[in-house]
C-alpha cells in the first residue's frame, strides 16, 4: 500500500451520501461489493451499492469514484441506473462479511468480524480489503457482542472467508480465472460448454467481460452478448475498446444493433456509429476513438500524467496527439505527435507544442489494410493517427489491431507455447 493512502472502515460508509461532481446528491451507500480470491489474497473491492431517491439499488464501480472523504462519496457523474444484481463471485461486505465467525490463522482461535477496512492501491484506481477488525470471545449475539478483546489484523491473518473453505467449486473456478490474462481466459471460455461459458460470462464484472470479449472469436462474442440482458450487453459494449465494440455490433442483425445503441450513452453510441460507417479493413474501421489528446499548451508533465493511466494499452500510451480544441475525437486541427521517449527526455515544464513530430503524414481513414500495415512496417510504429481531409484527428490505429486483421480468421483457435530452445522453424 502507498504510504499515507487512506484506510477506511466500511461501517463508516453505510448510509453516507453520494454526490456528482456538481455537488448534487444522487443517492446513499447501502453496501459494498467485493470479489473474494483464491487462498488468502485480499479481496478486490468492485464498487458500491447505491440507493437512489427512487429507492432503486444500483451498482457504482470504484472506477467511477473520485473521492471518499468527509462523510461523502464523490463520483465522476456517470451513473448506470440498471438495477443492481449480485453475481456468484461477489460478496456484500456489510451484508455478508460483517458479524461472520472466522479463525485467527496463528492461534486457531475463533473471532467475530466487527468491521473491515478498505484501501486504494498505489498509483491505481483499484481498491482492496486491507484489514479486519475482530473481537475475541464468545459467539456473536446481543449479550456477548461487547465481551472480549478487540484487534485489527491483516486479511491474510484470518481464515473462513475464502471460497474453497466453503466448498463453492464453481465460484472457486471463477476466482481462479481472475488471475488469467484476458487472452488466456478467452481461450478457456472458448473451450467450455455453451452453458458454462454463459455462467462464467454472467459472473464476470463488465470491464473484465469486455476485455475477454475482445479476445474471443466472433461466434463466441455474439453468443455471449446474446445471452446477456440487453441493458448489461450495452454496458459491456461501452466498456470495450470502441473499434472492437463497433466490429461486434456490425455483425448483429440491424434491429438488435439499433436497440443496443439506443441503450448506450449518447457519446459512446455516436462513436460506434462513426466507426461502423467505415469499411472494416480500412484505417477508419481499425481505429479506436480514444487516444490521448492534448492541446499544444499542455506540458510534458501533463502528458506523462495522462499516459500513466493503467487503463491505457501499451500502444495507446506510447505517444500523445496534439490538436487544437475540441479535445475529443473528431478533434480540432491535428498538429502532430509526441512520442513517449521524447517525453522522458524533456523537462516537465516543456510545452508539448514545441516538441512535435510532424514529419510523418497521418493515415487517411479510407486507407486499406495493406497500406496501413506498410506504414507501420516502414516507420517502426506501434500506433498511428487517422486524420480526415479537414485536418481533424478521428482516431488512432494500433499495431495489435493491424495484426488481428492480418492473421487468419481462426488464429485465436491456435494455442501458442513459447518453449525454451525452440527455433524459428519450430524444431
Automatic annotation (TrEMBL):
PROSITE patterns: CBS. The keyword RNA-binding does not apply. Residues 356-414 form the CBS domain. It holds the Pfam family MgtE_N. Gene3D superfamilies: CBS-domain, MgtE N-terminal domain-like. CDD domains: CBS_pair_Mg_transporter. The keyword Phosphoprotein does not apply. Keywords: CBS domain. One of its GO terms (molecular function) is magnesium ion transmembrane transporter activity. GO terms for cellular component: membrane. InterPro entries: CBS_dom, CBS_dom_sf, Mg_transptr_MgtE_intracell_dom, MgtE_N_sf, MgtE_transporter, PRC_barrel-like_sf, SH3_actinomycetes. PANTHER family: MAGNESIUM TRANSPORTER MGTE (PTHR43773:SF1). This is Magnesium transporter.
Amino acid at each position: 500500500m502507498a504510504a499515507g493512502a487512506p484506510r477506511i472502515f466500511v461501517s463508516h460508509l453505510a448510509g453516507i451520501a453520494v454526490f456528482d461532481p456538481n455537488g448534487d446528491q444522487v443517492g446513499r451507500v447501502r453496501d459494498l461489493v467485493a470479489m473474494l480470491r483464491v487462498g488468502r489474497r485480499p479481496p478486490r473491492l468492485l464498487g458500491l451499492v447505491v440507493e437512489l431517491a427512487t429507492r432503486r439499488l444500483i451498482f457504482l464501480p470504484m472506477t467511477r469514484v473520485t473521492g471518499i472523504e468527509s462523510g461523502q462519496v464523490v463520483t465522476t457523474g456517470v451513473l448506470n441506473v440498471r438495477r443492481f444484481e449480485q453475481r456468484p463471485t461477489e460478496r456484500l461486505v456489510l451484508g455478508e462479511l460483517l458479524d461472520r465467525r472466522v479463525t485467527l490463522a496463528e492461534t486457531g482461535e475463533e473471532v467475530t468480524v466487527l468491521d473491515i477496512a478498505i484501501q486504494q492501491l498505489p498509483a491505481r484506481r483499484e481498491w482492496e480489503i486491507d484489514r479486519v477488525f475482530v473481537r475475541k470471545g464468545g459467539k456473536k449475539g446481543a449479550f456477548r457482542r461487547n465481551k472480549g478483546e478487540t484487534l485489527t489484523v491483516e486479511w491474510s491473518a484470518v481464515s473462513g472467508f475464502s471460497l474453497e473453505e466453503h466448498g463453492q467449486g464453481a465460484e472457486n473456478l471463477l476466482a481462479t480465472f481472475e488471475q488469467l490474462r484476458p487472452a488466456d481466459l478467452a481461450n478457456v471460455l472458448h473451450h467450455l460448454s455453451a452453458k458454462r461459458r454463459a455462467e462464467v460470462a454472467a459472473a464476470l464484472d463488465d470491464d473484465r467481460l469486455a476485455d475477454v470479449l475482445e479476445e474471443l472469436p466472433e461466434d463466441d462474442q455474439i453468443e455471449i452478448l446474446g445471452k446477456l440482458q440487453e441493458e448489461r450487453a450495452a454496458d459491456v459494449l461501452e466498456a470495450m475498446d470502441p473499434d472492437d465494440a463497433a466490429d461486434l455490433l456490425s455483425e448483429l442483425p440491424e434491429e438488435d444493433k439499433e436497440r443496443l445503441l439506443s441503450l448506450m450513452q449518447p457519446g459512446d453510441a455516436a462513436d460506434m456509429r462513426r466507426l461502423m460507417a467505415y469499411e472494416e479493413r480500412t484505417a477508419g474501421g481499425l481505429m479506436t476513438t480514444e487516444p490521448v489528446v492534448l492541446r499544444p499548451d499542455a506540458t510534458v508533465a501533463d502528458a506523462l500524467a495522462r499516459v500513466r493511466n493503467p487503463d491505457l494499452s501499451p500502444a495507446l500510451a506510447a505517444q500523445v496527439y496534439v490538436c487544437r480544441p475540441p479535445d475529443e475525437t473528431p478533434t480540432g486541427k491535428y498538429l502532430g505527435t509526441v512520442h513517449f521517449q521524447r517525453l522522458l527526455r524533456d523537462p516537465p515544464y516543456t510545452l508539448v507544442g514545441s516538441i512535435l513530430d510532424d514529419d510523418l503524414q497521418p493515415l487517411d481513414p479510407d486507407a486499406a489494410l495493406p497500406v496501413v500495415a506498410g506504414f507501420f512496417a516502414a516507420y517502426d510504429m506501434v500506433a498511428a493517427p487517422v486524420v480526415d481531409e479537414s485536418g481533424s484527428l478521428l482516431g488512432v490505429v494500433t499495431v495489435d489491431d493491424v495484426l488481428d486483421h492480418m492473421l487468419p480468421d481462426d488464429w485465436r483457435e491456435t494455442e501458442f507455447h513459447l518453449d525454451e530452445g525452440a527455433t524459428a522453424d519450430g524444431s
